[in-house]
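Handout for the seminar on molecular recognition.
Each group receives one record of this type.
Step one: identify the two inputs.
Step two: read the structure output and locate the region that could contact 7TS.
Step three: write two sentences on what you found, then compare them with the reference statements printed after the record.
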Amino acid sequence: MLNTQCSIIREQFPILATEVYGRPLAYLDNAATTQKPRCVVEAERDQYYTANANVHRGVHYLSQQATDLLEQARVRVASFINAPSEQEIIFTRGTTEAVNLVASSYGQLLKEGDEVIISEMEHHSNIVPWQLLRDRRGIVLKVIPFCDDGILDLNAYKALFTDRTRMVSITHVSNVLGTVNPVQEMIRVAHSHGVPVLVDAAQSVPHFRVDVQQLDCDFLAFSGHKVYGPTGIGALYGRSALLEQMPPYQGGGEMISTVSFDRTTFEDIPYKFEAGTPNYVGAHALAVALDYIDEIGLDNIADYESRLTRYATERLSAIPDLRIFGNTPGKGAVISFLVGDIHHLDMGTLLDRLGIAVRTGHHCAQLIMTHYGVEGMVRASFSFYNTEAEIDALAEGIIRVAKMLQK
Ligand code: 7TS
């Protein structure tokens, strides 16, 4: 269905018509950030032109307009991930801040020797906040390993639980390997030990329907900019029973009920976790982005992107000496690879000269690089606005670069 609509869809993204060194841009860096449709850009512009004022503070008309848009956005995010209540949606700067919020705040409930389980395929934003907590509170980090094909070792996972396990924090989809982890099953295991689970959904929410009630997760984080929304806005879903027990993350305006020098009382959730003026314009534009992708249909998106990923896998696998990292069935819309001993940076730089935008380096997942004993990889990542012609350009580009660089 999406195939025939692709040109209509691409018209909604003016940046896709960019020429790079006289060639048409093939933007294949969508796992890093997605491009923005006109409706999202226009929503931001229109709000600044018509409904801009600080939120939750004013009795005046514009302030109420802006507050309404922010609170409607909260309801929209809640419905998008099927959260039971919008009170369980906290606006953050993105996934990174959401994980930091949980590690800092839930982390204050932990004691020395308590254990947190993460995995070997986490983005740094789901490792470093827990390491900071380890340094502050003496918690113990335990790591689920993955096998070479990119599958988490679930037996090892089950063996990591002890009576000191207090949290599991795992990625839904790996930003390097594309592995879609069986988080629902992993959550069931954690809950059987009475342990809550945080799901890093940065790479799942843009690509397929994510339902927090179906997953039964306790926290879920995602970034607006990866789901066709603006930068600087994202969301944390948290189960209200947990959020209510957790202390505030940051202090300031908006999050207090009363302040005196002796004692300050805090707002109810979610405001307790939203100190300072929020990115209310970003939140509104994020809601518009969610409407936009719902209009296309997440099932259509998932179907189209998985066909595109399969096509790209076939094309790239046929290239001599090309090694793809992560080969799990039903993997997400990313392909990380290396060709022979060509340095990832050389490959990325020369592909750029051909108009092809890919990411190179460790992709903020150095533990995955360590696993495979490589310093970096080249990564192509896809969106519903990409085409088979762009995949062809990528494959032909790689062959051309390989011919230039290989002895
Ligand atoms: N978690 C995962 C799985 C990610 O892929 C990313 C960003 C983050 C968390 C952090 O998101 P942020 O919006 O808070 O920065 N991943 C990438 C990437 O793969 N290339 O650039 C950013």
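Reference statements: The chain has a mean pLDDT of 96. Residues 31-32, 94-96, 123, 125, 171, 175, 200, 202-203, 223, 359, 363-364 surround 7TS (CB under 6 Å).
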